[in-house]
Amino acid sequence: MTLDPSAFAAILAMACATVFTRLSGLYLMGRLRLGPRGSKLLGAVPPAVLMALVAPVALATGLPETAAAAVTALAALRLPLLAATALGVATAALMRFFL
Amino acid sequence: MRQTWFDDFRGGALATLPLTIAVAPIGMIFGVGAAAKGLSVAEAGLMSALVFAGGSQFVALDLWRQPAPWLALGLAALLVNIRHVLLSMSLGGKLQAFPVWLRYLAMLMLADEVWAMAEKRAMAATLTPAWYAGIAVPFYLTWLLSTFVGVLAGSAIGDPRALGLDFAFTAVFIALVTGFWKGRETGLILAASGLAAILVHRLVPGAWYIAAGAAAGIAAAAVQEFLWPEELPA
Predict the structure, then answer these.
(1) pLDDT tens for residues A35-90?
(2) Which chain regions cross the lipid bilayer (chain A) (predicted)?
(3) Distance, CA of A51 to CA of B90 (rounded, Å)
(4) Cβ–Cβ below 8 Å for B218 and A41
(5) Quick one: average pLDDT of B21-35?
(6) Cβ burial, residue B158 (10 Å; 0-12/13-18/19+)
(7) Which tens digit of pLDDT belongs to each residue from B67-77?
(8) What CA–CA distance (Å, rounded) separates B31 from B25?
(9) Which chain A residue is nearest to residue B159, measuring alpha carbons?
(10) Could you tell me which residues come within 8 angstroms of residue A74 by beta carbon, excluding any fewer than 6 positions away?
């Protein structure tokens, strides 16, 4: 259980950075008065961020990932989250095994 | 009252269970990687406890040296997690049921997965502190525990890629995207975001692609509002 001083400083610096990003949005939200247009643009944030997180893996990695992404998306239209996720993971594993 | 609190906590925890299960192997991989980079058990655990942001922690392992370059690591964490500003702005408007001090405490536990499940809940009902705790606390504890398991077990854990487990987060996020679908408007936002993310991911190292996708999605929403302003809600 050793704690190197430079490692401790680095971890603290990282923690400060993430605390800052986590709290600053909430702080801004309390200061800004958003009109209907602003709220509408902010409403685009959740789907846009989710899509940005998945797109490079889902669409630009390989056939197994793209196929698994398509299976997940179709399954999610009918099935609950856990089932759709499990189908997607199983598809990725099977396709990687056979390709 | 007490029953309600517990029901909400359980509701949030159950809804988030797939993500809580999926984060365990990721935390273990982080722990294994940290051990390989020469971090002690205390250092790896402290980073998961205080930073609690997987993306930036993996980037930190990539940049890790002896002695640790604290400024470079702090700046990298800032860049990778800059999306949290948007996430906490978006979720910040949906915390009416929280006292102000609790809003800030809740935001300290913000992660992509926690945020996504909280947004999903806020679409269907008022997000209560208990529901949010049900989402965030088990997820946080699993991240922390699995880090310890990974750093202690070292390289004894098999390849999670073969089991498709690395795809679990992508799958969950895809399933969540379908929940935000509101017709053509959403389609164009998703197309712009996905295209920008893939392009920037190809061309620019690091996590810029997430910010690029978010910006492109917002821009697509702004363009549509300019073109079809009558579709603004009254």
Answers:
(1) 778 878 888 888 888 898 899 989 989 999 999 999 999 999 998 777 888 899 89
(2) 6-29, 41-63, 75-98
(3) 16
(4) yes
(5) 85
(6) exposed
(7) 888 887 888 78
(8) 10
(9) A93
(10) none
* Crossing angle of the two packed helices B129-153 and B100-108, in degrees rounded to 10: 30
The Cα B85–Cα A48 span in angstroms is 14
Lookup: tokens for B159: 């390849």
Residue B157 has pLDDT above 60, yes or no: no
Contact A41 B225 (CB under 8 A): yes
One-letter amino acid of B178 = T
3-state class of B41 per DSSP? Answer: helix
Token pair belonging to B133: 């705790």
Confidence label for B234 from pLDDT (cuts 50, 70 and 90): very low
Neighbours of B63 (CB within 10 A): 15
The reported pLDDT for the residue numbered B226 is 86
Buried b / exposed e over B36-52, threshold 16 CB at 10 Å, is ebebbbebbbbbbeebb
Q: Are B189 and B209 in contact (CB under 8 A)?
A: no
Stated pTM of the model: 0.74
Residue A1 pLDDT grade (very low, low, confident, very high; cuts 50, 70, 90):
low
Nearest Cα to B96, choosing from B59, B118, B126, B58? B126
Cα separation, B30 vs B36, in Å, equals 10
Lowest mean pLDDT among A67-71, B120-124, B201-205: B201-205
**B75 touches A at CB < 8 Å:** yes
Please list, in sequence order, all residues whose beta carbon lies within 8 angstroms of the beta carbon of residue B36, skipping any fewer than 6 positions away. B154, B155
* Contacts of residue B157, Cβ cutoff 8 Å, sequence gap at least 6: B28, B29, B32, B150
* Cβ–Cβ gap B189/A47 under 8 Å: yes
Residue of B nearest to A84 (CA): B175
Predicted confidence at residue A90, as pLDDT, reads: 93
Encoded amino acid at B120, one letter: K
